[in-house]
Amino acid sequence: VFPSLAKAQASVANEVYQELGQPSVFLFCPTEYCSSLCSPSPSQSCYLLTIGQELLPGIGVIWTGPKVVSQELSATLLEEVEGVLHRRPVIWDNLYANDYDCRRVFLGPYTGRAPGLMTRLCGLLLNPNCELQANFIPIHTLGSWFRSELGRCAYPDHAGTETAAALGDSHGPQEGSYSPQEALELALLDWVAEIHRQASEPGR
Fold first, then answer.
1. Quick check: 163 and 74 in contact, CB under 8 A?
2. Is the separation of the CB atoms in 157 and 111 below 8 Å?
3. Between these two residues, 169 and 71, which has the higher pLDDT value?
4. What is the mean pLDDT of the chain?
5. Within a 10 A sphere around the Cβ of 72, how many other Cβ atoms?
6. What SS3 class is residue 98?
7. End-to-end Cα distance, the chain
8. Is the CB of residue 75 less than 8 Å from the CB of residue 164?
9. What mean pLDDT do residues 54-80 have?
């Protein structure tokens, strides 16, 4: 019935989206959801080109970055993805995901995301560690990053100087800036306080 997988997926997604009354949040995860799965590249992928053309504009498209688990996200890559999809992507961030190797737990700060990235996104989902308590620092530092991005939006002079460099290079507590090390220290302070609070609860 359909000439390609992309045409079939877009048709089904569009029909479901319309049948549900075009909800404000409706997410589509493409078969090619990161650069390493695209052939030869996101901007030249026949599959993504078809998805971008056929999918209704109100449907959000999920993207994980250069790889399934991306150490860095740059504004340049997101511009390329936005161009081919005709919409800003929703990042499904697997930075902390450990479901593929449960012997590992990721406790570091949210890092490797370029300054000013939020203006290139339609949204961001964080795929956490499988172990609930191990996600305190990831989620706390993501909150710090998000607040710094809001600051950048409020101060366009800072946003105008965005680069694709990793956030680990950022120094100093400037308005609209993010320091992974400072965010980690704040998260650790709050985590210790939370551990003490839980330990003092009756019955523990």
1. no
2. no
3. 71
4. 89
5. 18
6. coil
7. 61
8. yes
9. 96
